[in-house]
Write a structure and sequence with these properties.
The protein is α/β, with parallel strands linked by helices and about 140 residues long. The chain has one domain: Glutaredoxin (3-Layer(aba) Sandwich), CATH 3.40.30. The strands form 2 sheets. It has a 5-stranded mixed beta sheet, covered by helices on one side. The protein has a two-stranded antiparallel sheet with strand order 1-2. It binds zinc ion. Zinc ion (ZN) binds next to loops.
C-alpha cells in the first residue's frame, strides 16, 4: 500500500488525502464536496496560489491574459491537456492582468508562459504556446 496523496481542493484550498488508487474515481473534497481533480483547468489567483502549490501532484500553470490572441488560441489545447493528464498533473490558469504582482514574482516576461511546479518548486518553464502533442511530450520529459 502506498501512502495517500495530499491534494489541495481547487475551491476551498483544503488539503485532502486521496489514496493513489482512488485518483480516477472523481474524488470530492472532504470539506466542501467540490470535485478535487476536475477534467478542466482550475483558476488560480494571488490569494490561493500558495495553497494550490501544496500537495503531491505536480501543478502546471498557464499564465495568460484576455488581450493575448495566442493565449486565447492555446486555451482549448490546455483544457484538453487537463482532461488527458487528470490524476497525474493538476492544471491551473493564472490571469496575469488580474494578478499582476504574482505574475511579477514569477518573472513572467511574455505570455503565454507555462510553468511546471513539483513539490511547490518550479522545475520547468516554457514560453509560448505548444500544440497538444508537443505539450504532452514536454511534460513527459519532466516525468509526467
Ligand atoms: Zn474543498
Amino acid at each position: 500500500m502506498t501512502a495517500p496523496l495530499l491534494i489541495p481542493c481547487p475551491h476551498c484550498n483544503g488539503l485532502n488525502r486521496i489514496p493513489a488508487g482512488r485518483l480516477g474515481d472523481a474524488p470530492r473534497c472532504g470539506r466542501c464536496k467540490t470535485e478535487i481533480l476536475p477534467a478542466a483547468p482550475v483558476e488560480l489567483t494571488q490569494s490561493c496560489f500558495s495553497s494550490q502549490l501544496r500537495g503531491d501532484l505536480p501543478l502546471l500553470v498557464d499564465v495568460w491574459a484576455d488581450w493575448c490572441a495566442p493565449c486565447r488560441a492555446f486555451a482549448p489545447v490546455f483544457a484538453q491537456a487537463a482532461g488527458q493528464l487528470r490524476g497525474r498533473c493538476r492544471l491551473g490558469k493564472l490571469d496575469s492582468e488580474a494578478n499582476p504582482s504574482l505574475a511579477g514574482q514569477l518573472g513572467i516576461r511574455s505570455i503565454p508562459s507555462l510553468i511546471l511546479f513539483k513539490g511547490g518548486v518550479e522545475v520547468a518553464r516554457q514560453s509560448g504556446a505548444l500544440p497538444l502533442p508537443q505539450l504532452l511530450a514536454w511534460l513527459r520529459q519532466q516525468g509526467i
